Amino acid sequence: MDEQFNQEKRHSSRDIRRGISDTGESFSNYAKDTIVHEFDSICSALHTASHTLNADNSYFAGIFDTVSNTADNASKYIRERDPAEIVDKARDFSRQNPYVFTGGMFIAGLALSRFLKTGLPGVHDQKEERYEHGA
Fold it and tell me: pLDDT of 67-85, one tens digit each?
């Protein structure tokens, strides 16, 4: 009887681990797809800006071309890789280049916070209210 209980316990724990692993894998694939979608949106905006600047013969057109092509390459890289492989590559890069990685994460954090602040409803309204009331 004890052996049967232990065997059922092993099967249950194996099923739980498999379920957690499947959930983690589906979440990482969903996150990867979301990131690729966002990258594609950013790439589209960068290409549009680049074309507009090219039409105006702007000095910045070449810079936007380079940035948009780099973003395209990053999107393609993420799309074609397994999430675990991307994490391993990022971990290796961060170990080899800790200062570059830290600086990149800092800049990404600033950009993300700026992006999130612009998307929050009411943030601009609160600032305007304070100025109107002399605060």
Answer: 888 888 888 888 888 888 8
Does residue 56 sit within a domain? yes
Q: What is the pLDDT of residues 19-58, one digit of tens each?
A: 676 676 777 778 888 888 887 888 888 888 888 888 877 7
Does residue 74 fall inside a structural domain? yes
**Number of structural domains found in the chain:** 1
Q: For residue 68, give both structure tokens.
A: 């948009």
Q: What is the full DSSP assignment across 58-124?
A: -TTHHHHHHHHHHHHHHHHHHHHS-HHHHHHHHHHHHHH-HHHHHHHHHHHHHHHHHHHHHHSTTHH
Residue at 130 is within a domain? no
